[in-house]
Amino acid sequence: MKSLFIMTASLIGLVVTVGCGGNDYAQSNAQQDQGPSQNSIAAKPTSSSQGELNSDRLDNWHQWRGPNANGLAPKGNPPLQWDEETNVKWKVEIPGTGSATPIVWGNQLFLLTAVKTDQKPNAVAQPADTTGDRSGGGGSQRGRFRMSTPTPTTFYEFVILCLDRETGKTIWQKVAHKEVPHEGHHPSHGYASASPTTDGQYLYASFGSRGLFCYNLQGDLQWKRDLGNMRTRIGFGEGTSPVLHGNSLIVNWDHEGDSFIACLDAKTGKDKWRVPRDESTTWATPLVVEHDGVTQVVTNARNRTRSYDLETGKLMWECGGQAGHPIPSPVTL
Question: What span, in angstroms and rounded, lies between the C-alpha atoms of 222 and 202?
């Protein structure tokens, strides 16, 4: 019987530079990916869609951690050195703030950002009393270091940007939502932290408590979903990214309230299934893998690491949980 090996990996970002320089890195990793050894990989990350898109995704960076969700670009040819003056093709200023990784499909680069405005609502809701509450929505503090920023009192615009990959010019820009966030976030974090994903036809963007949105690649809204407000641990903010596989969009919703994992119909945004989870806040993005002909959704969390059947949501296996603040996403070896 084959075995499934899963491990966690640290968060990384994507640096966009001019496509020149040596290809030692890409060749080295291509050699490592030629096939499993007798004691290595027994499961493989699945693609986000079928047919021609299976091949196209390897030429792009269509989701968090790239085409195979492991941080590698199988067909990449990046420069080995860069700085402010070397191997930089273009640089543009982005409004607002965000820590979501940009994604790339063809000549389009997509990214999310949250833009603070000076506009105030007619009545500002007072932050809940979080004394003794792990959520810390009003801005938790440890010693002199503030663990989370104060709850905002002004509107933020939650923006999706599409840039030209060759020039950096804006192709289109959409305000997906406008709202006063209900809690703060870690000082190094932000309100645009989930990386978008695409199958080359539609773009899926999550702003967490502000909603989940589907656009076509021309910038036309197809559908949106409101999954409610998260209450994050110590007010650290939100960060898990949606994962696309075929016509299934997986969203993990672990927080200090009623946690769940859901599989949505990618065409309509409606639930295919939803499973409650006995978990507090996590920031890890699920991993979709195939093993013995079954497609699984693997989640990293505090209490248990679990695998769900993509088709039904049925729990397939579980093992011991991870650290107190589960951030790393699972990867296959």
Answer: 9
